[in-house]
Amino acid sequence: MATIQEINEQARGLKREGKYDEALSLYSEALKALNNALDEFEATGTAPAVEDGEEPATKDFILFQLQATYYNLAKIAYLKEDPSYAIRAYLAATHIEVSKVASDIRTGELSEEYKKAFRQIPKDAVAQLPHPAAAYIYFERDKPRHIAHAFMDYNEDFLTSAEANPKYVAAYKANLRGDGSYEDVLQQQGITEQDVQAAELQFYWPFGARFFMKNGIDWSRIDDTNVFEIYFESEERQTR
Fold first, then answer.
1. Is 3 exposed, middle or buried (0-12, 13-18, 19+ CB in 10 A)?
2. Residue (of 57, 23, 53) closest to 41 by Cα position
3. With 90 as the cut, is the pLDDT of residue 46 above it?
4. Against a cut of 0.85, is the pTM above it?
5. Which end of the chain has a smaller Cβ tally under 10 Å, C or N?
6. In angstroms, rounded to a whole number, what is the distance separating the alpha carbons of residues 213 and 211?
7. Angle, in degrees to the nearest 10, between helices 20-44 and 4-16
């Protein structure tokens, strides 16, 4: 049986080739194995190895692999033009990450690096956080902008509201595919890397961060790592 690392590597290669259904199938296989390992750990306090030649998996390792797999699934769903699935998968991945931060805060194990970073957030902003661990979102550079792309890039109103918007979408898709077409697409669209980065920072990232903070992540269940139940089985969550 292929290891989780091998499955993920194969899936990334399939994504670059545009074989999204095959990549999705592999990531789903990885999710099943990881969820089974997590269930066993929750039930017995131990879990089988999810990598060949490794010791039995720890809960932190399983959760790390789960969040990475959901993150990769979200990108495939976006490229398959299924933004609803992509949004839910980005929520699941980010929930797992923030749940670890919440656990570290609760147990007094938050790293000095995070403590120093969190102290830089203005006090008025801290007062508005839905949970202390939400401070992590301020320093997560990628997932907020990715989830914003899933929200906006298949929205006709957004695409027609400004001439530059479809250009940024085309560049983002090329970059996400990882097929080597990004520079050519930039040239075809008449935009630069600096233009793209400005749009990511000034529009996409703030939109995604606000969504995570306000009504994306279920902060009432941030200590619960059963993200499939929270973001995929809940009808309310599917239609937000």
1. middle
2. 57
3. no
4. yes
5. N
6. 5
7. 160
